[in-house]
UniProtKB/TrEMBL annotation:
Residues 5-60 form the HTH cro/C1-type domain. Signal peptide: none annotated. Residues 72-97 are annotated as: Disordered. This is Transcriptional regulator. It holds the Pfam family HTH_3. PROSITE patterns: HTH_CROC1. One of its GO terms (molecular function) is DNA binding.
Length: 155
């Protein structure tokens, strides 16, 4: 991905500093990506995409397709959102798409079921581990004459 970021930078005839300023990123962060100290994050992708909406997210992240989204109209009347990486685009060929159980679903309902499936799979779980309450056993105060005093709480 760092090579594709460099390609974007060169295609726009920008220096590393200029490109970092353009996308709202620090030059040091961009430099660390190019020097393999860090990997580009989703925030980096979003920063680039927000400044260059015609850039293909699929190309930037995975190297698939062309660098820029084509301006040629598609047969689908609604424009495809390139930033939605989790969805699958379904073409509607008019008569609908038969499902596995012999019914007939339209392209829109297939897309809705795909979205429902994706949403049902991703469920983050947060587990809270209870730790026993800690007790103070000793407090030491050190003085500048290299002595110390110890205090022990009463039980």
């Amino acid at each position: 991905m760092k090579d594709r970021i460099r390609q974007i930078m060169e295609s726009q005839h920008m220096s590393q500093q200029t490109f970092a300023n353009f996308i709202g990123m620090s030059a040091a962060s961009l430099s660390s990506i190019f020097n393999n100290r860090t990997k580009p994050t989703l925030n980096t992708v979003e920063a680039i995409k927000s400044k260059m909406p015609r850039l293909s997210t699929d190309w930037l992240m995975f190297g698939r397709g062309s660098m820029f989204i084509d301006d040629t109209p598609t047969t689908d009347p609604s424009p495809a959102e390139d930033t939605d990486m989790g969805s699958e685009h379904v073409a509607d060929f008019g008569g609908g798409v038969p499902d596995l159980f012999g019914g007939n679903q339209t392209g829109a309902s297939v897309q809705q079921s795909v979205h429902r499936h994706v949403e049902s799979v991703i469920r983050p779980e947060v587990k809270y581990v209870e730790r026993p309450q800690r007790q103070i056993t000793e407090i030491r105060v050190y003085f500048d004459d290299l002595t110390y005093e110890t205090f022990v709480p009463k039980k």
